[in-house]
Write a structure and sequence with these properties.
single chain, alpha/beta, Rossmann fold, six-stranded parallel beta sheet, two-stranded antiparallel ribbon, 8 strands, binds flavin mononucleotide
Amino acid sequence: MFKLAIISGTDRPNSKSYMMSEYVQKLYEERGVEATIYSMMDFPISEVAGGPYGKELPKVEAFRAPILASDALLFVIPEYNGSFPGILKLFVDYLPFPDAFKNLPMAFIGIAAGAFGALRAVEQFQMVANYRNALAYPERVFVSRFNQHFDAQEGLTVPLQQELLLSQTDGFIGFVNALKGR
Ligand SMILES: Cc1cc2nc3c(=O)[nH]c(=O)nc-3n(C[C@H](O)[C@H](O)[C@H](O)COP(=O)(O)O)c2cc1C
């Protein structure tokens, strides 16, 4: 099997994105994938104050190294002001350019309090990932009204949404394995 980095896309304490990340981690582990959560809460934001682009930043390197050593990434992205959180862009802006995402398989889950399930947030983030030549898995999951539609044990409480989540999980595992030639 392979190593999956689940990126919890916000630094907000007690975030729903982290809860969702824990739930999907379980799904991947049940299927034999070594899945680790990396939360934007742990991104060393004080290291990048003042814009030290291109400089050696040991704490940033320590945060990003295990992510970039993974075989695939799964982003759990909350919608903030019709987009993805700024910390997630900062994370990307401090990845090695241009190759960090090149040919790296990725999948996307969007979550939002509102009715559109972070469609905008995920699509905007995908523009960035595409620009950096990532390999996007086409099945995405969008969870609207997250508070009403998520249970930490059972997952998504709308049956169709849970079905789509399981389909993404199985499909993404197949996608990554096919790319790895297994
Ligand atoms: C700064 C901020 C901006 C937000 N903007 C939106 C928004 O534009 N649309 C929306 O549906 N929800 C918005 N939300 C709510 C989040 O999408 C919602 O809480 C989501 O379930 C997960 O965010 P979390 O991981 O921070 O808990 C916003 C939340 C915050 C903190």
